[in-house]
Amino acid sequence: MNRIEEILHDHFRPEPEPAGLSERIMAGLRALPGSGEPLEPGLVRSLLDRLAVEATARGVSGVRLGGGPARPSGAAARRLAERARAELQEYWEGRRSFFSVPVDLGAGPAFQHRVLDAAVRIPFGESRSYSWVAGAIGHPKAVRAVGTALGRNPVPFIVPCHRVLRSDGSLGGYGLGLPLKRLLLDLEVRTPPLEGCASTHIVCRTGCRAGGRMRPDSRILFASLDDALSVGYRACRVCRPDGAAAH
Amino acid sequence: MTPNAPDDRDLMAAVARGDEPAFAELVRRYSGRLFATAHRILGSRADAEDAVQRALMQCFRSAASYRPVWAVSTWLYRIITNACVDELRRRAARREIAEPEAHERGGTVPSPGERLDIERALGRVPREARILLTLCYVDGLSYRELARVRGISINTVKSQIARGKAILRDALAGGRGDAARAKDKHAAGTHVERS
User: Fold this and answer.
1) ipTM score
2) Out of B24, B93, B101, whose CB is closest to A129?
3) Which residues of chain B have pLDDT under 70?
4) Phi-psi region for residue A141, left (φ > 0), alpha (ψ -120 to 50) or beta?
5) Which of A40, B24, B43, B73 falls 20 to 30 Å from B124 in CA-CA distance?
6) Does residue A161 carry a catalytic annotation?
7) Among B82, B100, B138, whose Cβ lies nearest the Cβ of A127?
8) d(CA A63, CA A48)
9) Contact A14 B75 (CB under 8 A)
C-alpha cells in the first residue's frame, strides 16, 4: 500500500458513533413533522391570497401584496400574470431558484432601470450591498439614491431587491417589511439552487421545466455549477445555469 | 442481526407502507454509518447529525420512490451526500450574507496536531473529488457504488479519485518542497528553476 493510501485510511478511520444517535434521530423526526419547509405553509397561503400581479403583453409590470386584485388587459398579459403567480408560489415553497417570466419595467427613469438591472444580476441565495449596486451602475457615490430606486421596485421578489443589504450585513430597508426580507434571504439559503439529473447528466436551476420531469430519486445536488461540470454534467440549455442570470 | 431479521429491501417496502417500527430499524442500522460519512464531509458533529436527520426524514417521505434495483445503502448514501453537499453550499451562502463584501472562501476548521497537514492538503482537492475520496475511505464504497451515489460514470469516479490523490501527494510534499526551494534560493542567491 503506498503512502497516500495509508494516510487516507488512517485519516478517514471512522470514529465511534455518538451515544444515543438513533434515539435522538427518531425523536427529532417525530418532533418535526413537515419541517424542512422553507416558508411556513400558512405564510405561503397568506402571500398567495394577497398577491396581485400586473402585466402587459411584454412582461410582468407589477407585483403587489394587497390593494385589490390586478386586472391585466389582454390574453397575453393575463397569461404572463398567471405564469408569474405560479412561479412565485414555487419560489415561496422552495421549489424554484429563478424566474423565467419576462419583466416589463415600462418607461421609468433610466437610473431606476439600471439599479433594478443590477439587482437582477445578484445570484439567487446571495446578497450584495447598496454600495456594490452603486458601483455596478457606475455611480459609486449614489448609495442613497440606489436605496430609493430599490424601494420603488415595482416587481419585488422577481426583481430581487431583497438581496441588497447594508455593507455591515444589516438588512437596510424593504417596502414589504423587514421580517419578510429576512425570511426571503433565509428561504434562498435553504433552497438548493441547482439540481442535476443522474440519468441525463444535465444540471438545471431548481424549478426548470426540463428538470421538473426528473424522477425524484435521480436528483443530485451540487454546491456550485463548477462542481457539477467537474464531474461531467452539462448545463441545461433551457434554464441556462451557466448563462447571464435571467432573474 | 438475528436469522429472521428482514433484509434492507423488505424494510424499505414496509417503510413505504408507513410502518414506523420498520423505519426505526432502518435508522438503527444506518444512522451510525451515515453519521460517520457526514461527519467527515462536514467536519462538525452537530451539522452531521442535522444532515443525517434531514436525510432520514427524506428517506421516510420518499420511500415509495425507492427502486429495489439498487442496494438500500446506495440509495441512502445518495440522500446523505445530497444533504451534505447542500450544507456545504449553505455555509458558503451564509458567509456571503454575513460578509457581503468579502468573497474569499474561509478555510476548513483546523484540527489539532498532525491531522492539520492532511486537512490542509484535502482543502486543496476540489469539492466533488474530496467527497468521493471521503465516501471511498470512510465506508469503503466501491467505484461502482460511488458512481451511483453521485450519478456519474465509473470513469469519472476513477479520474476524480486519481486526481484527488495526485493533488494530495503534491500538497503533502509541497510544504517541504517549497521550504527546501526557499532555502536553496537563499543559499545560492539565485533564481531556482522549477522542473
Assistant:
1) 0.86
2) B101
3) 1-4, 96-115, 175-195
4) alpha
5) B73
6) yes
7) B100
8) 11
9) no
Q: Which amino acid is at A38?
A: P
How near does any CA of chain B get to the CA of A2, in Å?
11
Range of the domain at B115: 110-195
pLDDT tens string B166-182: 999 998 887 554 444 44
CA proximity to B68, closest of B19, B16, B22: B16
The answer to whether A70 and A64 are in contact (CB under 8 A) is yes
Residues B73 and B141 in one domain: no
Helix axes B154-188 and A3-11, enclosed angle (nearest 10): 110
Interatomic CA distance for residues B17 and B66, integer angstroms: 12
Q: What is the pLDDT of residue B190?
A: 39
Per-domain residue ranges of chain A? 1-191, 194-235
| The pLDDT value given to residue B192 | 38
Closest CB from B56, B97, B126 relative to A169: B97
In this complex, do B101 and A215 lie within 8 Å of one another by their Cβ atoms? no
- Report the distance separating Cα A90 and Cα A67, nearest Å: 23
Cell 453537499 sits at which residue?
B85
Cα(A239)–Cα(A232) distance, integer angstroms:
18
**A19 band by pLDDT with thresholds 50, 70 and 90:** confident
pLDDT digit string, tens, across residues B14-25: 999 989 899 999
Longest C-alpha distance within chain A, in Å? 74
CATH number of A1-191: 1.10.10.10
How many domains would you assign to chain B? Answer: 2
Chain A residues near residue B56 by CB distance under 8 angstroms? 25, 29
Contacts of A156 (CB under 8 A, 6+ apart): A63, A162, A175, A176
pTM for the predicted model, two decimal places: 0.84
Q: Which residue spans within A58-132 are E strands per DSSP? A: 60-65, 128-129
Task: Measure A50 CA to nearest chain B CA, in Å.
Answer: 28
